Amino acid sequence: MRNRIVYFISAVMIFAGCKSNFYSKEDFNSVLKIDSHAHIDTDKGVFEDQAIKDNFKLLTINVDVADSAAVIFQHKIALNSIKKYPANIFYAATFYFDTTGFGTESWSKKVISHLENDIAGGAVSVKIWKNIGMTARNRNGKFIMVDDPALDPVFNFIISKNLPVTGHLGEPRNCWLPLNEMTVSGDSSYFAENPQYHMFLHPEYPTYEDQINARDRLLEKHPDLVFVGCHLGSLEWNVDELAKRLDKFPNMAVDMAARICHLQYQSARDRNKIRDFCIKYQDRLLYGTDLSDEGSKTAQEITDQIHTTWLEDWKYFTTDEKMTAPSFRGEFEGLQLPKEVVRKIYSENAIKWYRLAVIK
Ligand SMILES: [Zn+2]
User: Fold this and answer.
1) Distance 276 CA to ligand 1 centre (A)
2) What pLDDT does 10 receive?
């Protein structure tokens, strides 16, 4: 009888032990999470309030999308948000890439003095964007790539401030492929509607490999630069290629913003490969979405979109449920990553790489 009781207790413990290795959908609210790639461009507070409801902290990233006024506007919004939601919202600064005078000392001094002001205001990182490599040209009409020596003083300044760079360079590899060879429909529909950005149609622009190589040369040149590559470091199409860079550059991590569908696409072909990749590089991956609120949608639309995206992603990383995605045909299974890995991807890595003063 005693043996049977011992057996029963051990069986319960083993069962409970196995179960506790993984989170479930019900744990979504109780686990602290960070969306390390968001864009809040309005002071409505809808995004921030939903984040608090869903136990998320946010890193809102300013982007050099238009002109200096747009950068100043985003900076103002970010300062308001971090003041209103202390320890919940963090922000990455950026600078307006004015090509006038590029290559001179006064150009880099101006950028550095702008960044000094942003860092004093609480920025945890500096964002550099794909206009470097894809739009900005020097006075000879040549594209300015990110490893251009004229940018070295700026990167050296950021290193001296112990801040990471958040780098979105290049585009998904699909951008350089014909529409019918693109892997996910989000890309093919976007580039069908925006042929001006579809690089397959513009061979006069730098190639996909040019973008990746320039980024790699930047990291070779500045081994002390802490670099968080946005969108899986623009190597979203192949975890082996991403793994090569993570092996080569110990100060590089990547966020997953707007590229989780590419992991899912690869999961549908070989789930264990993607799962093993996430476990092997568990200290280098940051959850992020690229969700944004620029103030044009209703509060309901924004909260529905944010909440649904966050829940679906949580399901993919924590459970082994069968899933489908709107961006490609076919089923795939959730990765059901161990709890420890989920916590790293969902918060601990962002706290470590961006040095976020999060109050848990
Ligand atoms: Zn973004």
Assistant:
1) 27
2) 52
